[in-house]
DNA sequence: CTGAAAGCGCTTACAG
DNA sequence: CTGAAAGCGCTTACAG
């Protein structure tokens, strides 16, 4: 009985007690020191098995839930993982996010989502605000960003994994696939099926979209079709409606086009529907292929040939890699290529 | 000069300093006390204008960024707002989330996203984990939840706004529209255009989907068509592919069906594409309408008649309402009906 | 309008 | 393997 606490039922006048069950409460219940409780609950260092059990029992009995704020303040590291993606309107990123978040939440991390709208200044602002929360880890989309944003990341010392593209510098980490190679492969698929006047039609024009375009050009060049390279690049955001517009534009500017590679499935889906509306025969007059295998592509008329990209796997693996880094473990494969797959359907 | 700090350049051996610029640094720079800096920066209480400026200048000069963890620990309230949504695969919720997050971030709140997968147990678990973070506010989808989840929310004392549906109990807050009334209105639209054998086809079967079905039944009953009520309810998750399957099933079970009201646009889009594939004339043989006006519905063949739902406005208004509650302000309209709109297109 | 003191609930760094 | 002390960076509750 602590004699110094004459009446513990009566809160002191200056009390700011929150009514929470704290580590100290658990310690008292278990008859050990608070530090031991802290260690037992985190599984840190060796705590005698018997004590461990007593602590667990006490924590459960009291319904103890650790306070993340106190933990963050004391350890200078929060349980947050900040995730930066360009846009929520692209199903691709939503699926990536969903996979990331699922893994991270299981391991007790909270996901903080930052949407950059493909804007370097916005990315920088979001990054600055997130870093103030001292996240335990960081996931960012792609490799290209402003020098200031890159410096913020590097200077923070927060473990960071890049997704969707593959980096190569030592000391950096990435999980993705070669956008360029995927663009090359789907173009090659069109060439293999006899198409010659292949166009590349893209919107948004983010780095990955441009890399796919490079792959397209490489395939054309390798096939001796450098002269037939046709690119229609629109800076507007990608959408089904825009896909229809760009199909019409392509066919009016270059009526002999016999295949179109759209940089994203939403454009291709819109193009397929526009073709139906306009009476353009797909794939007879023009083959159409997309990228990403988004929901609905298999339902189109005809079903859309596309590149299946492993964003769910990317999310899961990136989460695993980041968790290893946050635990201070070494990552044997810092740049993880998860590949892609050509999904041949009836539109090509 | 504090004589008790003989050599402030040399960190003590027990130092845990993080290298951060702290309130105390700003206070020293501005020549005021830390409390004054705290108040000036938060705009709390009246701080002399001149001091305020000095503090601001010092903070800017030093690049001071408040530590959210310290703030949360001291004030027992974080800058997080937890948002609970059923699924990320429904574009509806992604758009809602985007709108919410945009507003909240502008006001300095961080959004914590919890996906419940329409599972009460999962909702409860997510809630429990989020509440440990002492969020400043809470946004939850719909009104139905387990008693335990409801008790968690209520017991936490955290301000909470319900979205997508309209509550009525005093002391609760909601922003949405009447799902039932919207279901009734779109059914009435079909009846008004001469359809009689109208079916309601739904998936997922969450509360809002069932409410739309009630509206459908009410309209049928009022038209004296209670005997013609046809409901096809699938517990599977909603998708375009399922929409095609359910269309076929409806037409094979009740070939004289002259209109179908799908509970969500993805189902209706899939049905429209299946109809095209099967040679079912829409709207001649069967009219098709959807719900939510999702991306792509205007691109269908024929374009899909649907109910436009104001999720972006709901997100924005819910954020505003929650921010008022978090500031302790009174909300004059605790249940905000944002309505809906019938979007008549060619599929009906 | 401003401040000195205490405290929020944890973990780190040392010591044994 | 365990613990007493200090401290993380703020804000609350008083007092003036």
Can you walk me through this structure?
The structure is a homodimer of 348-residue chains. Chain A is of the alpha/beta class and 348 residues long. Helices cover 43% and strands 14% of the residues of chain A. The first copy, chain A, contains twelve helices and twelve strands. Chain A has helices at 23-30, 34-42, 49-62, 68-75, 91-106, 120-131, 147-156, 179-192, 207-222, 240-253, 265-278, 311-326; strands at 80-85, 110-115, 137-141, 160-164, 174-176, 198-202, 230-233, 259-262, 287-289, 306-308, 335-337, 341-343. In chain A, strands 2-1-3-4-5-11 form a six-stranded parallel sheet, with helices on both faces. In chain A, helix 6 packs parallel to helix 7. The longest helix of chain A has 16 residues, at 91-106. In chain A, 47% of the residues are buried. Chain A binds a DNA duplex (16 and 16 nucleotides) through helix 2 and helix 4.
């Amino acid at each position: 009985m602590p004699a110094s606490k004459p009446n513990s039922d009566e809160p002191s006048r200056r009390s700011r007690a929150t009514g929470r069950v704290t580590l100290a409460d658990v310690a008292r219940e278990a008859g050990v020191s608070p530090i031991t409780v802290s260690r037992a609950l985190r599984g840190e260092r060796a705590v005698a098995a018997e004590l461990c059990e007593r602590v667990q029992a006490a924590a459960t009995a009291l319904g103890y839930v650790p306070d993340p704020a106190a933990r963050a303040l004391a350890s200078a590291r929060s349980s947050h993982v900040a995730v930066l993606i360009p846009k929520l309107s692209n199903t691709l990123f939503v699926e990536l996010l969903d996979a990331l978040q699922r893994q991270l939440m299981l391991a007790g991390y909270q996901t903080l989502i930052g949407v950059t709208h493909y804007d370097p200044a916005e990315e920088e602002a979001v990054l600055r605000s997130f870093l103030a929360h001292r996240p335990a880890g960081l996931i960012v989309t792609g490799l290209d960003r402003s020098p200031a944003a890159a410096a913020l990341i590097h200077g923070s010392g927060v473990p960071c994994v890049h997704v969707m593209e593959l980096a190569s510098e030592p000391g950096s980490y990435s999980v993705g696939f070669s956008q360029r190679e995927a663009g090359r492969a789907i173009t090659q698929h069109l060439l293999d099926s006899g198409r010659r006047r292949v166009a590349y039609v893209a919107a948004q024009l983010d780095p990955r979209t441009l890399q796919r375009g490079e792959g397209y050009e490489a395939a054309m060049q390798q096939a001796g079709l450098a002269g037939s390279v046709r690119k229609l690049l629109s800076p507007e955001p990608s959408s089904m409606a825009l896909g229809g517009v760009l199909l019409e534009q392509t066919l009016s500017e270059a009526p002999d086009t016999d295949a179109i590679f759209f940089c994203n499935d939403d454009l291709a889906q819109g193009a397929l529907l526009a073709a139906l509306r306009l009476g353009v025969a797909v794939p007879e007059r023009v083959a159409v292929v997309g990228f990403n295998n988004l929901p609905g592509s298999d339902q189109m008329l005809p079903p859309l040939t596309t590149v299946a990209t492993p964003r769910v796997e990317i999310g899961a693996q990136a989460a695993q890699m980041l968790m290893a880094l946050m635990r201070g473990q070494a990552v044997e494969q810092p740049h993880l290529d998860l590949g892609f797959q050509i999904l041949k359907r009836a539109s090509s």
